[in-house]
Design brief:
Number of helices of chain B: 7
CATH architecture of chain A: Orthogonal Bundle
Order of helices and strands of chain A: EEEEHEHHE
CATH class of chain A: Mainly Alpha
Largest sheet of chain A: 3 strands, antiparallel
Strand order of the largest sheet of chain B: 3-1-2-4-5-6
Structural class of chain A: alpha+beta
Oligomer: heterodimer
Number of strands of chain B: 16
Number of domains of chain A: 1
Order of helices and strands of chain B: EEHEEEEHEEHEEEEHEEEHHEH
Distance between the termini of chain B: 45 Å
Number of helices of chain A: 3
Distance between the termini of chain A: 16 Å
CATH topology of chain A: Arc Repressor Mutant, subunit A
Shape of chain B: globular
Shape of chain A: globular
Strand content of chain A: 25-35%
Strand content of chain B: 25-35%
Chain lengths: 95, 281
């Protein structure tokens, strides 16, 4: 994955905080996702302002001993949410 | 021929009953649906004709014309048509694929589950243990958490009959079918709930042979996921009714029930269940 990519929430997605866990519903996909752990962090940071690399960096700061796993997990979560239609690509900024 | 009208959430359906035998079978079995006689068909018309061992069920709106040989199958397929049309057309409230019962204090439990998870059998058990019957298949609930249900005869698959038979009152029988068997509320010694009950709890049952009993509260996120998967008229509602369903889950305790048969339920489970449901009212 090109980690310079920037994603944001698909516009029709409906998030709900359920006692600290996030459920997100996509009417266009008629699908509900349960986000917790890494996926809820990624969801919270995919606001259209941060690249995937930014998100990886931010989470790695919290878990420096797990840098490799963090990168893999975040890329997997972003790709998964994008493939399911919950995240859309905003831009791939140039250097 | 006689016409019998029923309505749920502004969805009107007329049962056009064309034979005396059909009337004798259908009207008592569907006593919980508040059928009222009408001169002419209104809304969606479903026709029932024929006699024992050769019934005919016609639903032109769904292009269905069935010949059925068992009384139980006629009742199953007829009520299935009613459930389908109500769920398909209801816009003003949520339709849930769920059973429901009420306590004698007027609090209701919604019992959502996929087909085969045992919700109808569990509902029959609850009715036999004093809970008032709302539905074994379709709950209609508004955002104020007032609910009604399609109070058809409880439909039990053949594999579940052995467990149900001990619950029947003496000399009461089941209306048999090949696809499903109809168990009336009266056969269980039960009674129908009054309409517009208030929600007290949501319980997700799962019967699995050999499973140990476990009744526990679950997180609202877990309950929200499960309830959305049983939300059958989502596409008729703004935002697919998601926010309303989540609000319902937040405001009511949600539980899962795992059990391996009625003999795995504790002796005082009916009381525990009632206390759980009443706790919110």
């Amino acid at each position: 994955m090109d980690t310079k990519k920037i994603y944001r929430h698909a516009p029709d997605c409906l998030p709900e905080d359920m006692d600290g866990e996030i459920l997100v519903y996509s009417p266009s996909m008629a699908t509900t996702l349960h986000l917790n752990g890494p996926s809820s962090i990624v969801w919270g940071l995919c606001t259209g302002e941060h690249s995937v690399a930014d998100i990886i960096e931010a989470v790695t700061e919290v878990y420096p001993d797990q840098a490799t796993q963090v990168r893999e997990d975040i890329i997997e979560v972003v790709e998964g949410l994008a493939n399911k239609g919950f995240l859309i690509l905003t831009s791939t900024p140039s250097d | 021929m006689s016409n019998w009208f029923l309505e749920y959430a502004n969805v009107g359906i007329t049962l056009v009953i064309e034979s005396i035998e059909a009337k004798a079978l259908v009207l008592p079995a569907l006593a919980g649906l508040n059928l009222t006689p009408c001169e002419r068909p209104q809304g969606i018309a479903i026709t029932v004709n024929g006699h024992h061992q050769k019934w005919q069920l016609i639903d032109p709106e769904s292009d269905i014309n069935q010949t059925l040989t068992k009384d139980g199958d006629l009742l199953y397929h007829l009520t299935d048509r009613i459930v389908y049309h109500v769920a398909n057309k209801t816009e003003g409230c949520h339709c849930l694929h769920a059973a429901a019962v009420a306590t004698n204090q007027g609090a209701a439990a919604i019992i959502p589950a996929e087909s085969g998870a045992g919700k109808s059998s569990f509902t029959a058990w609850l009715v036999a243990h004093g809970f008032h019957y709302i539905t074994d298949e379709l709950v209609l609930i508004n955002d104020a958490t007032k609910l009604v249900g399609i109070a058809r005869p409880i439909q039990i698959k053949t594999r579940g009959l052995l467990a149900i038979k001990p619950l029947l009152r003496e000399n009461e029988t089941i209306i048999f079918g090949d696809f499903a068997n109809a168990v009336t509320v009266s056969a269980l010694g039960g009674q129908f709930a009054t309409q517009n009950q208030s929600l007290g709890a949501i319980v997700f049952p799962n019967y699995s042979k050999g499973a140990e009993f476990l009744f526990k509260q679950i997180t609202s996120a877990d309950a929200g996921m499960r309830l959305m998967s049983n939300h059958v008229n989502a596409r008729n509602l703004e935002g697919h009714g998601f926010k309303g369903i989540m609000e319902t889950v937040r405001n009511n305790p949600c539980y899962s029930l795992e059990y391996g048969g009625f003999d795995t339920l504790p002796p005082d489970f009916a009381e525990t269940f009632a206390n759980t449901v009443n706790g919110r009212c």
